[in-house]
Please model this.
Amino acid sequence: MSERLKILVVGSGGREHAILRECLRSPIASDVIAAPGNGGMALEAQCIPVDVGDPTAIVELARAESVDFAIIGPEVPLCAGAVDSLADAGILAFGPNAKAARFEGSKTFTKDFLDKYNIPTARFGNFSETSPALDYLEGYPEQGRIVVKASGLAAGKGVIIAETRAKAKQAVVDMLEGAQFGSSGEEIVIEEFMEGRETSLHLLVSGQDFSVLPTSRDHKKIVEGDTGPNTGGMGVIAPDPTIPDETLYEILETIAKPTLAGIQSEGIDYRGILYIGLMLTDEGPKVLEFNVRLGDPETQLILPLFKEDTVELFLSAARGESLPDNLTPTGDSAITVVLAADGYPDSYPKGTPIELPVSLPEGVSIIHAGTKQDSNGNLVTSGGRVLNLVALADTAEIASQRIYKACEHTYFEKQYFRRDIGMTVPENSY
Model:
């Protein structure tokens, strides 16, 4: 491609820092800015404040900065219609439009879609009123896990795994009557608890075309051995070594292709990422959820593991152009470990000074997530998941050695990280 574009990356997390780096190394990019960005992104590109939940503000910023191409990272602006608003302003953007973003913005919409097109998922019921939901729960045993989900966006916290029917009923009341998750819980999904092993698959979609991105396995639990409460993700290994080719083929044939065919049948012009959360059960792969953006921290590993230019691929998808059937793997393995603030995923301090090491082990880099620059320009913590250490190597074993060597440095006081990323196989994380 001979064109040169000014690119805006919208978002402030580790995912967006990883995307920013892909843009900075792309021959297509003439200039790259971020909004609002984070402390690490500000070291590499201009960062401009913006309310990511306000599509009008994003459009005004893109116009003021003469942006040619916007890449929307998080789900909030996608579900709010940022891509639609940018398109109306004549600015090309990467990410699903608001109609397509309902696959993440509404779990009830997604479950009805899965049922309509016979795509494997857990047995479920959708509800907006308490009485029918409680009646539905009478069909479950008194003892045994039941999943109750807020339908709307809840920052990954809208899922309750109840150990008994009585606790599931209480979760229903808390969501529908107690507004536990605000407007996100005005509709809920009740579903059976699926036994199996969790994994995920990212597809880059351009209408009828799609490319399969490298497989990955997230570790959502806060404690080693996959115990404790869920988080946004404490680390990832990619490609997922527990997904053989035959399992990937089964996922594509029974889930990915029927899903995209159903999207076409619904008249949805899907352009962007379709993230399929999966449970590998004894009955075969089943869908846990759909997301309409790259995972975080999966992005930090996925994007460096194929040889094609990320920006060129995103641009083709945004334009509805054809995509390569297969991406070219680099042959590397990758592991990322999240350095979290003390107390995460509950309350945690902010404003803790960050000290980056002078050097890192071979193949290791740092992606910023919950960081900012204070009034003196010093890096400090600003979120629960503060930094991602990323290691690339010929094998997963070497990547693991490198990443944990890098973890020996004290980046900030009371940093916390899991010491078994890539060494365990998470199950039933939901």
User: Anything to note?
Assistant: The chain has three domains: 5-95, 129-186, 197-406.
